[in-house]
Amino acid sequence: MVKKARIGILGASGYTGAELVRLGLRHPQFELAVLTADRKAGQAMADVFPQFAPFSLPKLVSVDGLDWRAQALDLVFCALPHATTQLVVSDLLDAAPATRVVDLSADFRLSDPAAYEQWYGHPHQALALQSEAVYGLTEIYRKEVKAARLVANPGCYTSAAELPLIPLLKRKAIEPDAIIIDAKSGMTGAGRSAKEATLFSEVSEGFNAYGVAHHRHMAELDQEFSKAAGQDVIATFTPHLLPINRGILATIYVKLRKDKTARDLRTILAEQYDGEPFVHMLRYGDMPHTRHVRGSNMVMIGVVADRRDGQAIIVSVLDNLVKGASGQAIQNANLMLGFPETAGLEQIALFP
């Protein structure tokens, strides 16, 4: 019998935590050993999410006071709110330095401490770990992820935009100063905490932009696009909230370099992602829908020429809870632990 990895999930009572449990239960090499949820501590997972009633899972416990060394965890997923993970991860790795960590918050995504302080309003509280963390966009940083102890899982919006744009910037196929990302997310992207702005009657039958001109994901996009282009890149990015449960759809407008066509962009992306299990390029001119990826770890990308010469439109979709969060986290964990990258992630999209 193959020895299973002992897994901890911090923040198991949130949407991304529950998605980690859903996927982890069917992972052939995971043993879900520790589940934390401070407000729900002491409850069974089935009391919080009844869909888990048929399964034997550990009770939810508070993260405070956990003896990390005694737990002997091989890997921990942190699905905690932004700005709370830094000290938790510091304590964990001080006590159990051999444990691997995949953090799903934004706490370790930015490599520049000054950029972090600018966008998040306070100094980073774990600078040594910030410099150690590997940005976990799996298809771009696979080699680095394999060797990492701490991986910063990318944001859902950023994954949808970076996967199509990074290869094009690296190949200098598009103008880096003329990128517009018009992105929409389902309601689960706002988290599970009760908020007036996310009540059903507040969002149903409506559609709105938010974080206009100052959304925190902009720092993440600046960092990765600039690295890919080899120069400073500042893209226009506007997020919108859709009254659906799951899904990200990013409509991306780009200006072509003089020697490139929209078909060339599709060819570059097809070459980049040939053989990738979780990135699928549609035929030229075809456009993906969010329902084509719901519940799966798949990204689908379509490319078409704009009616204006020298312009192209790219549409990228993913499930914000899977490839945009928990699925990509498991994909990274598989690499870190030496498991097949697709383990536990083979589910096909649920349709309709």
From TrEMBL:
Keywords: Amino-acid biosynthesis, Arginine biosynthesis, Cytoplasm, NADP, Oxidoreductase. It catalyses: N-acetyl-L-glutamate 5-semialdehyde + phosphate + NADP(+) = N-acetyl-L-glutamyl 5-phosphate + NADPH + H(+). It is found in: Cytoplasm. CDD domains: AGPR_1_C, AGPR_1_N. The keyword Amino-acid biosynthesis applies. InterPro entries: AGPR (IPR050085), AGPR_dimerisation_dom (IPR058924), AGPR_type-1 (IPR000706), NAD(P)-bd_dom_sf (IPR036291), Semialdehyde_DH_NAD-bd (IPR000534). One of its GO terms (biological process) is L-arginine biosynthetic process. GO terms for molecular function: N-acetyl-gamma-glutamyl-phosphate reductase activity; NAD binding; NADP+ binding. The keyword Amino-acid biosynthesis applies. Catalyzes the NADPH-dependent reduction of N-acetyl-5-glutamyl phosphate to yield N-acetyl-L-glutamate 5-semialdehyde. NCBIfam families: argC. This is N-acetyl-gamma-glutamyl-phosphate reductase. The gene is argC.
